[in-house]
Design a protein that fits this description.
4 copies of one chain form a homotetramer.
Chain A (H helix, E strand, L loop, with lengths): L5 E5 L3 H12 L3 E5 L7 H5 L3 E2 L3 H5 L4 E4 L4 H9 L4 H4 L5 E4 L5 H13 L3 E4 L2 E2 L2 H5 L3 E3 L5 H14 E4 L6 H31 L4 H12 L2 H12 L9 H18 L4 H15 L10 H8 L3
Parallel strand pairs in A: 1-2, 1-4, 2-3, 4-5, 5-6, 8-9
Antiparallel strand pairs in A: 7-8
Helix pairs in contact in A: 6-9, 9-11, 9-12, 9-13, 9-14, 10-11, 12-13, 13-14
Chain lengths: 295, 295, 295, 295
């Protein structure tokens, strides 16, 4: 029965490719689109149909999933010429996995509703390795009935699903808050390492203690990268981290909540980018904190 | 042989009592002092000798351990009348477990050196349950030879020992940075919960995701307390949290490092205390963040 | 010769009305538009022609001035149906006095260029009393030749003109920075008063000293309002102050500069609005600072 | 009658020398002390008696004024060997002009009271030129009767006197808040200039507008120094500015008030000092802000 669900998957970047492949391997019928068609070829060899436009990919879809880099790309693929929105059948669902603004999520919800389509925001947490291993954390929000229809898809890509609420944008709010929590760990390490280095204490020593105290892979991973100064090649570039913290701050503007730590992180990342670290990993803010401490 | 080491233990608060008991149970000969003698009685029943002054406790000690509430209490017990410093034999070691300032640690090191005594700062990480279960993280700093002599004591109270450096105050720098890392989690949750509540998302939903993402007991514990508003009775009072973040800021002043997130946390805690939450748990800064968001 | 210049003036709010009237009294031929036509009547009695749409007002204009509340209003009046842009003759100039975003200024420059029209951003500094007395500070930016053509207009509304640069949006950058400087005085007073009140010192005493030290009417004016708690009716509402600080932060995003004090002011204003002070004067952030200090 | 008042003046730095000379020229009988005796010689030529210790200077004094660099120097001169406190006659007054902590002011008040002496904190606002021209702003606090007795002295050094309150430390609270207000202008210019330079706008252009807007010599003076990058020789060194903002933060700790802008300024100054600008003028924080923006 699952196999009878037609899925369109638009956006085959590092994450999107792995998620699409898991859907395919779970038995869904897949039509894929990517601006650079080369990335789609390996999926074709596993049975996906390659479409030459978003519209073509979506024409017979029950569900169209998007995993695009940002608001602009999403807007263009969904609402642009030959886009998803005008091609998706009435009654079908658009499920946006991308990290987009709460504002755009609300706009998409409205645009799809006008067309008699459903819309869900379904951001995910996890790095590419998690995507590959079907270990993503999946956070859908939107009308409960639509979420229920898409559950088999969530199960095919993730290890756990948490419903954020009945309005799609709420999932995006959760996503930006989650990213903030991670960024906050990065910034905390950055600042503590700077203080400790000025006190003659090795970051690694501190990291060992923090690992013992927190017991978290997030701390172990980023704490080590920052302690060793492993910032290139970037797992997640600082420019992207900056983009994400701006999405967070934009959400806070909308709901009227002060967010002082997000402000600190934002200022730090802006400095990093302004000083030429945009393409380094986002945990390279540790370099910025060190520099500001005169190291 | 261990049993032949004489230990003085000064300060039998919640943590000190449990640590002293573990030393006793590990076979060390213990002389204890506490301002309120009642707290010492249970230890006497297990074989400790109760002293009526710090000086009396320390007179025959090989090692004198202190676990006192703050700088003032430590100064008085160590350097005051009938104090530790003037009674401890030459060649013996003072091992300060308390969370004290790096400045006081440097002063204690000098005072003991003048008297031909050794000094180690040996702060610990862990809550009372960890102290009870010999599961503390022990962070000594000071002359390596002294640290070696005290290792059996560290093993008797903790699950892991991390040497911070050759100067005692470095351990205190590590301790205040570690506390900062925890406080930073509290503040991050406080702010994210406020944003999410204004977005109509339940803190518990977010907490579940964060637990899935971070997999850390620190997140699980404080995240739940903050989500449920369980702030009384305090596990660790906000006034104490504020004291600790001030120690951190004082250390940063000494080493000349900016510390913007510690500044944010400090401002938050000052507000909490100023608005009457001093006796609540320190994770009650979540209430402050909520209030500032108009909740 | 001046009188032979046809001016369209769109937006007759408190500031716009007074500016338009000064243009009229300086001898310019004026066609005015305001959504609420009543506000235009007094100008009609002094010789202005009342237009029933932005387009009608601009049809024969040499220069079209706009003084609208924000980006949205400006976009609609300029680019909406029956808007300024499609009606203004080729070769004529649109001069936007409103406090708008640098992003919108760039977009307007492009839109007008496409239509063969000129565009200047010409924000002003000063309260209504200054507008009434032709005492505004006028800050034009854009192509120098256009600025030269408009100088007689600047002279008719202000006491001094400062050219910000050859690109229109630069004037908007200057404007948001100037507003930031004023907001920064408000926030400084707010925080210092809170500290001093907790120290038992009267804000007024401090204000007298600051007046003696700074000798600035801005300090005298806002310092007194904040000291006396005179927040209603608002001279400039907190919601508007918040809007302005957001424009500032948006500009900083564009040019990639950290702006920590603007972040602090933003957080403060968000709190004020979230706690119900949106309609009070923006210097009511002093109330927020006092509250956060437990007063 | 004034001439019959014996004044001791301790501390003949740049400010102290000029203040002492004005007292002398106003007809007071003066006994002066300075660590470096050379600085006292010009005063001797105008009739002052040079003492070889604080004690000697104070032995017959009705009022002993101190103008010393910081808490440590003040403590030593007042409470050290051959110090002011043990020599000053009962009933005489110690008047401390130095910028010291509120904590030390409270301690001095207690120490003098114990000795039957009076104590006033009498910080002043103004640069050396103002001191020379008797144009200081004088801010005494302490018992009203003592203030009245000292009024002729205030009049001899300043242009205006503002009584801060009945407790001496309140004047120090006012002084640190006043310094904060100035530092806040420096930081605001630093940040706005950085944003504007990245927007291609000349700081001087902005300064002209701010001068037109604020009309304050403080803005004109520091705004110009920062715009021109005139940071050496320092009028007031960044290390001293940092010391002062720390005094401010210490006062805020005592009275339990959050102070976010002072935190931002503190972090900025720490960075400046850590990056080697300690001996530059404190308005060189503009260089730090520029650097952090990638300039």
């Amino acid at each position: 029965m699952l196999a009878s669900m037609n899925i369109a998957f638009l956006g085959l970047g590092r994450m999107g490719f792995l998620m699409a492949r898991n859907l395919l391997r779970a038995g869904f019928s897949l039509s894929v689109f990517n601006r650079n068609r080369d990335k789609a070829e390996p999926l074709a060899r596993e049975g996906a149909r390659i479409a030459s436009s978003p519209a073509e990919a979506c024409r017979d879809a029950d569900v169209a999933a998007t995993m695009l880099s940002d608001d602009d790309a999403t807007e263009q693929i969904v609402l642009g010429a030959d886009g998803l929105a005008d091609a998706l059948p009435r009654g079908a669902i658009h499920m946006a996995h991308s990290t987009i603004s709460t504002a755009l999520a609300r706009r998409l919800a409205a645009e799809h509703q006008r067309r008699g389509q459903g819309y869900l925001s379904v951001p995910v947490f996890g790095r590419p390795e998690a995507a590959e291993a079907k270990r993503l954390i999946v956070v859908p929000a939107g009308p409960p009935a639509l979420i229920d229809r898409c559950r088999p898809l969530f199960d095919a890509i993730g290890r756990a699903t948490f419903v954020a609420g009945p309005e799609a944008w709420q999932a995006n709010a959760v996503k930006v808050c989650g990213n903030f929590m991670i960024a906050s760990v990065l910034e905390s390490f950055a600042e503590a390492y700077a203080v400790l280095r000025k006190a003659g204490v090795e970051p690694h020593l501190f990291l060992d203690i923090m690992n013992s105290l927190f017991g978290s892979p997030v701390y172990a991973n980023y704490g080590a990268m920052a302690a060793e100064g492993r910032f290139e090649p970037a797992g997640f570039a600082l420019t992207l981290g900056l983009k994400d913290i701006r999405l967070a701050l934009d959400t806070a503007r909308e709901v009227a909540a002060p967010w002082p730590m997000a402000d600190v992180i934002h200022a730090r990342m802006v400095q990093g980018v302004a000083q030429g670290q945009g393409e380094m990993d986002w945990c390279s803010i540790a370099k910025v904190a060190a520099r500001n401490a005169g190291l």
